[in-house]
Amino acid sequence: MDTVGTVTLALRSELRFEVDFGLACVPRLSTDAMPPLGQGGGPDSEMLLMAAVGNCLSASLAFSLRKFRNDEVPMRATVDAILARDERGRLRVRSLAVDIHLGVPASALRLVDRAVAQYEDFCTVTQSVRAAIPVAVRVFDSAGAELSA
C-alpha cells in the first residue's frame, strides 16, 4: 500500500484549525466552520471535500488529455454540494455535482472522446468518495457542448 504523507491539523481557537500539509513550499491553510458554529475564517470541511473532488477530477482530465498528446488545456471546474439531514437529524453531504469547462472547442483536441471516457477512473479521490456520496460530473468545451461520456 502506498502512503500519501501526513497532514497535521492544530486547533488555534474555537473551531479554527491550522492545516500543515508537510510540504516545504506550501503555506499552512487556516480552516474554520461557517457561522453560526464558527467565524467562517477559512474553508470548512465540506468545502475542502468539494475542492478535493474538483481538483482530482480536473487533474485527471488534464492527465487524460495529455495522454492523447494534447497540449495543456485551460479549464475551470465548479463543484456544488447538497447537504441534508440523515434519519438522526445529522447534517450530511448527500451529493456532489461537478462541471468542468474546457477553454477550447472539442474540435481542437485529439481523441477527446477517449480522454473523457476514461479520466474519471484515474481520480483516486472521486472514486473513493463515490462509495458513500453520489458524484455527478459533466464536461463542457468552450462552446458549451457537453462532452461527458
UniProtKB/TrEMBL annotation:
SUPFAM superfamilies: OsmC-like. Coiled coil: none annotated. InterPro entries: KH_dom-like_a/b (IPR015946), OsmC/Ohr_fam (IPR003718), OsmC/Ohrsf (IPR036102). It comes from the Bacteria. Pfam families: OsmC (PF02566). This is OsmC family protein. It comes from Aquincola tertiaricarbonis.
